[in-house]
Amino acid sequence: MDFFEAQRQARSRARMLVPGFVLCLFGVIAALYGIAILVRPFFDQHRPGPLFRWWDPETGLAVAVPVVALIVGGAIWRIASLRGGGAVVAARLGARPVPASTENEAERRFLNIVEEMALAAGIPVPEAWVMGEEKGINAFAAGRDAHQAVVVVTRGALDHLDRDELQAVVGHEFSHIVNGDIILNHRLMGLVFGLVVISLTGRGVIRIAEHIRGAGGWTLAAFALGGIIWVVGSIGVFFARLLQCSVSRQRELLADAASIQFTRNPEAMARALKKVGGTWRQGMLLSLRAMEARHVFFMPSDLTGLKTHPDLKKRIRALEPNWNGEFIKVHLHAERPLLVRGGSQPPEVEADLDADGLAARWRKAPSLQTPREARLVLLAVAGGGNDPRVAPVTEALGALEESSRLAVIEGTVLPLKSLPKRELVQLVEAARVRFAEGNLSWELLLAQQLVERRIAMHAGMMSPPQTVHRGLETLYREAALILTALDSASGDGMALGAVVPEYFQHTGVPFEAAPAADLTPDGVAGALRAFWGATPMVKSQLMRLCRLAVESDGQIGDRELGVMRAVAAATGLPLPPSMLAR
Questions:
Q1: Which CATH number fits domain 472-579: 1.20.120, 3.20.20, 1.10.3680, 3.40.50?
Q2: What is the largest CA-CA distance in the chain?
Q3: How many angstroms separate the CA atoms of 559 and 402, rounded?
Q4: pTM attached to this predicted model
Q5: Residues assigned a catalytic role
Q6: I want to staple 328 with a disulfide (CB 3.0 to 4.6 A). Which of 101, 111, 278, 363 is the partner?
Q7: Cβ neighbours of residue 420 under 8 Å, at least 6 residues apart?
């Protein structure tokens, strides 16, 4: 699966949403204009001329201006409100994050599956969330990119799917992340909200009327006004559903197939779909906000209106051609409560940490157990601080090979996001003081990119960078410095020869190696910072050049891998598959 090509195609499809949205907007205006033309004679009987004027600029303007203002304004507002990434979408739909230290067996199984699928897909481990009030079997992935992605499952999915079936469903959602479908879905949610905002306004007026009962004629008038607005807004709802359906249903069939590539278990996916069909809900959700996001779910979140997903039986037969048509019956009333013993906050790390025990555990698996442990790792990398528990963590990191040490540092991001915001802000500020001192090590380079690009942004301490570089030709010096650093890390001088032709193709200038004095972690950090404001395509071009440089000699050294991890953190792109086993 070519990640970069899939991402390019997804962004191309996302750009096509705008013309589709404009067509839907014109459709809403045309429908409301037609209604206005039909009803105006009853309110303006003294107007001279024919009873019905099918072309009436005055009426058209009176309809178009408020409709465009409401719909476009609503879409822009919703898209801006979702800039925080997948966590914002998940929270809006009533989900909660699963703490890394959860003692609930079903949630622990879910966390393990997410980590396994991230390794299989070659992307950073996304946050795991649960819709604890939803009894139906469903799931979705959301986010603006792989680094801001979340994977969400319902309580019903945790309760009624076995491990293989849940892994198949999670693998389906991971394919949406890898293929860039979440980019499309994220943008579509904003546009759909704009189209349904008139209907939502009508609902809001009706709710206000319910709260002012007893006001006589005002209450009746409010109910009537809300009902009219809601009915008129239903036209926008229709076009919103049409726009959601225009996002090819074929994507769901492809995601089912991609899940099988990850899990190698087509039977599990088929069983999961049969269990969905065996429930009376069939994936339906209670959340009223699910309507604007119905296209992101594993199964339709409601069964009304136009279909956004392929027929369930069609999906099963694509996996199991000889299926007899029988579903697996599931009784949703038998679910087990999802309780996290000890509260939702993870426990503190014990003060008497054992360095040998930590090193042994990290050699087996670099994942960190709690946010507190991740905090100590970052403090240890950044210089220690005053916490006495940092010393054994520093010793444990020193006992690891460089590749394992880098993996542990990279593993701090996900658990750190569970820290209280105040504590996270203090940690970022302490790390920034250390970074500002200069003289970065290669490990600090990776830590710096992770802190600035992922942790600080999550804490609200950094806004998404503005896009200022739309071609690699404006970053040719920075790209040359990063590539020269990779060549220096390889030690064989073969890396540059493999990238020179493609570098010239993208930049239009001959390759010129950076001076040796600039080939330091601080120099590379400055070059990577420039790429924060590059377009996704430019970042993909840099990652491809780096991959060519590293793979040119058939060997991947620890120093090369460290630089590549920093490049991945800065660009928000996954490591190439050839480096995942390191």
A1: 1.10.3680
A2: 93
A3: 8
A4: 0.64
A5: 173
A6: 278
A7: none
